[in-house]
Design a protein that fits this description.
Oligomer: heterodimer
Structural class of chain A: alpha+beta
CATH class of the largest domain in chain B: Mainly Alpha
Number of helices of chain A: 11
Strand order of the largest sheet of chain A: 2-3-7-6
Number of strands of chain B: 10
Largest sheet of chain B: 4 strands, mixed
Strand order of the largest sheet of chain B: 1-4-5-8
Radius of gyration of chain A: 21 Å
Bound molecules: flavin-adenine dinucleotide
CATH topology of the largest domain in chain B: Butyryl-CoA Dehydrogenase, subunit A, domain 3
Number of domains of chain A: 3
Number of strands of chain A: 9
Strand content of chain B: 5-15%
CATH superfamily of the largest domain in chain B: Butyryl-CoA Dehydrogenase, subunit A, domain 3
CATH class of the largest domain in chain A: Mainly Alpha
Chain lengths: ~350, ~400
């Protein structure tokens, strides 16, 4: 039902064309604050946060359906960021204080907490960050540089992956803390990401997430991969539907181009791939809630499949639109840009295939 | 406990008590894919027949068929549980073949009461083996172009002509055919669907060798074959509708029989990699082949999940255009699996027979060759894509 609401909302107010507005360098956030507030009001951010912390206590399966709807129009509002990148590490490793402080306002969409994960040259070595947490008189000092941090411009706090004297650590850092600086980056998919630099930022013991940092990070990455796959599923399906629509409309040689078998067969192939993607995403999202032992494998399956399928659909979509597909004025190109960005976020295909092989014992 | 859970318990108890020990764990990963039945079946392990009999008594060989025709009258959901539990114990399906998978469901939908009573229980018991007389030299993808003639002579038809690619015709007892009863009408409109006892004088199957060296199929000649009119399924001249419905069952069966062995492709390839490739620290050293196996394993899993999803969605009995999707994906997946297996085998994948090759590798090579047929038989992948484009995506016909 929430998925239906999400779909109506994006169709009514968030058509993909608005990216042309959001991508302008002077746009303050890269997404719509009003729309995000409305999404929060509808429960999108509260959905997967436990009821004890002001959420709705639903699982990844429900969240995935919302993200799929948002994905159809490539809506960049920070729902995934809030509900996964911020909430999951806090839920797993946050102290009671941290949870009490952050989770209710994340649920309400009033706060954005994001994950400062990637570094230049890091690729998928997320468990060996160069960002360092060193002992200092007051506790620790954090130094390093994170790139393409999702929603960095609007984040109230960052969960920073870093190397501490005792190994991998996750530090919760206030965005306004002295020594934190944020610089906007402009990306092919127009998402408002940024470089975040930490220059000897003071971190207290109590700012570190507790428990096994590797396990927390792995679970966050798996959940993020599946959440993003759901978004990609929605996007791929929409790009495909628009393309099939175009095949029926566009006339050449006196007939709709959709009557050409060369195009029919390629459309049929894409349709089959989309069916497999849907199955993989639904199974992975469901496993997160119901079958934790199967979840890591299925997360790898979902993301690798989403990477391949969304890119394939987006490339074919442009080809089948011909010249107009190449124009900035036409929307279909946004899907290719997003497909490429999403395909290298939270694990590219090669990463997930290697992980799958490992989890299957070869 | 829900009704379905209770049924699962009941099935488990049934299998625990009745499934022959010798058959447990032999299938679906093992070599035995089930009992094809028929009067010409070579001698078989008595446990296979015992297994068939205990299942038949409960209606479990064809569980969704009504009881009066030898089934158990189960819903698709209940039947899915039965298959799942058999699969979990590595048990083969008690009866398999074109009777169970194709003509049975078609008779249920279109057959006269008389034909149902005559044939369905025998199919469910695996007493009669069926083959498919659709293709002819001039009618492959363009199936509606069948030319085999059926001329009326009182309460009989007299059949003359040739069928081709008739799989297992030499081992079958009956054949279901598309024949031409009216050549003046539009080609789809003069076709009749008819059942023929292969012992009728004038029916002659002749084996054809495949590139894999085996001869699972035949040309089947018909010379003045007298067939009672009551053997027509559906109406005279309206057999095309019946024939197409059967094709959907055929495709669905090809798709789901491949999916009936979850993970088996990946398992087989990893086993092969253990024999043929270098490993270090528990990993296949060759990064390219390793990634290709993972790619295949993932498609296989996504396909399995899709089968489950389709099964949950389909409330009523008959497969529709989703059977085309499943057929395309399943058959291309299967081919990919054998190609990759051959790549893993290297020189050892080249054996035909004789010294220097072990039995598994020899069998694999034959299967690799056989798998090329998967995207041709049962309607080629191109034809399936035509169906998806038109029936699912609503793309226009070529003018
Ligand atoms: C192992 C095996 C078992 C078989 N068993 C049986 C059986 O038991 N009973 C039975 O009746 N038949 C059987 N067949 C026959 C099978 O159904 C036909 O081979 C199949 O329908 C293709 O027909 P064809 O061989 O005449 O090829 P053709 O129709 O001549 O096709 C040749 C090529 O042209 C392509 N093509 C044809 N039409 C189109 C189109 N409209 N658009 C795009 N491409 C097109 C095809 O896809 C194919 O690639 C079997 C075949 C094989 C290989």
């Amino acid at each position: 039902m929430l998925a239906e609401t999400a779909r109506k909302l994006v169709e009514g107010k968030a058509k993909v064309a608005r990216i042309r507005e959001l991508r302008r360098p002077d746009h303050p956030t890269g997404f719509s604050r009003e729309l995000f507030a409305e999404m929060a009001e509808l429960g999108f951010t509260a959905l997967s946060i436990p009821e004890d912390f002001g959420g709705m206590g639903l699982g990844l399966f429900d969240l995935a359906q919302i993200l799929e709807s948002l994905g159809r129009e490539l809506a960049p509002e920070p729902v995934l960021t809030t509900a996964v990148l911020g909430a999951v590490p806090l839920l797993r490793g946050g102290s009671d204080d941290q949870k009490q402080w952050f989770l209710p306002s994340l649920a309400a969409g009033e706060t954005v907490v994001t994950l400062a994960l990637d570094e230049a040259g890091m690729r998928d070595r997320w468990f060996s960050p160069k960002t360092r947490l060193e002992r200092s008189a007051e506790g620790f000092a954090l130094s390093g540089e994170k790139i393409q941090v999702a929603d960095a411009l609007v984040a109230d706090a960052f969960i920073v992956t870093c190397e501490s004297p005792s190994g991998l650590a996750l530090a919760l850092v206030d965005a306004k803390a002295p020594g934190v600086s944020i610089e906007r980056q402009f990306r092919v998919d127009s998402r408002a990401v940024g470089i975040v630099r930490f220059d000897g930022v003071a971190v207290r013991e109590s700012d570190l997430l507790q428990g096994d940092a590797r396990a927390i990070l792995q679970e966050t990455l798996d959940r993020a991969a599946v959440a993003l796959s759901a978004e990609m599923l929605g996007a791929a399906e929409k790009a495909f539907a628009d393309t099939v629509g175009y095949l029926k409309e566009r006339v050449q040689f006196g007939v709709p181009i959709g009557s050409f078998q060369a195009l029919q067969h390629r459309a049929a192939t894409l349709y089959c791939e989309l069916q497999l993607l849907r199955s993989a995403v639904m199974a992975a999202a469901r496993a997160a809630d119901e079958a934790p032992e199967a979840f890591p494998r299925l997360a790898a399956l979902a993301k690798a499949t989403a990477n391949e399928t969304f890119l394939h659909v987006a490339k074919e979509a442009i080809q089948m639109h011909g010249g107009v597909g190449m124009t900035d004025e036409f929307d279909i190109g946004f899907y290719l840009k997003r497909a490429q960005a999403a395909a290298v976020t939270f694990g590219d295909t090669s990463h997930h295939r290697r992980r799958w092989a490992e989890l299957n014992g070869y | 406990m829900s009704d379905l859970e209770a049924f699962r318990e009941e099935v488990r108890a049934f299998l625990e008590e009745h499934a022959p020990k010798s058959l447990r764990g032999t299938s679906p990963c093992g070599p035995f894919d089930g009992y094809w039945g028929g009067k010409k079946h070579p001698p078989v392990d008595p446990d296979v027949l015992r297994w068939r009999d205990v299942c038949y008594e409960r209606g479990f060989t064809a569980p969704t068929w009504p009881r009066e025709y030898g089934g158990a009258g189960l819903s698709r959901k209940h039947a899915a549980i039965l298959w799942e539990e058999m699969r979990a114990m590595g048990l083969p399906r008690p009866v398999v073949g074109f009777g169970f998978a194709m003509i049975g469901p078609t008779l249920l939908e279109y057959g006269s009461e008389e034909l149902k009573r005559e044939h369905l229980p025998k199919i469910a018991r695996g007493e009669i083996r069926w083959c498919q007389g659709y293709s002819e030299p001039g009618a492959g993808s363009d199936l509606a172009n069948v030319q085999m003639r059926a001329e009326r002579d009182g309460d009989h038809f007299i059949l003359n002509g040739q069928k081709i690619w008739t799989s297992h015709a030499d081992k079958s007892d009956w054949i279901f055919c598309l024949v031409r009863t009216n050549s003046s009408a539009k080609k789809q409109q003069g076709i009749t669907f008819i059942l023929v006892d292969m012992e009728t004088p004038g029916v002659t199957p002749r084996k054809i060798d495949l590139i894999s060296g085996s001869s699972p199929f035949c040309e089947t000649f018909f010379e003045n074959v007298r067939v009672p009119v009551r053997n027509v399924v559906g109406e005279i001249d309206k057999g095309w509708t019946v024939g197409k419905a059967l094709l959907a069952h055929e495709r669905a069966n090809i798709g789901s029989s491949i999916g009936r062995m979850p993970g088996s492709g990946q398992r087989e390839l990893v086993d092969r990699a253990r024999r043929h490739l270098a490993w270090s620290e528990g990993k296949i050293e060759d990064a390219v082949l390793r990634e290709q196996i993972a790619e295949l394993g993932m498609i296989e899993e996504a396909f399995q999940l899709t089968l489950d999803r389709v099964a949950q969605k389909a409330q009523s009995g008959n497969p529709g255009s989703e059977s085309s999707i499943l057929k395309v994906v399943a058959t291309e997946l299967k081919q990919r699996r054998y190609e990759l297996g051959q790549a893993i085998g290297g020189l050892q994948s080249l054996g035909w027979e004789g010294p220097g090759f072990d039995a598994d590798d020899l069998a694999f090579t034959r299967e690799w060759l056989r798998s090329r047929a998967n995207t041709i038989e049962g309607g080629s992948s191109e034809i399936q894509r035509n169906i998806i484009a038109k029936q699912v995506l609503g793309l226009p016909e070529v003018k």
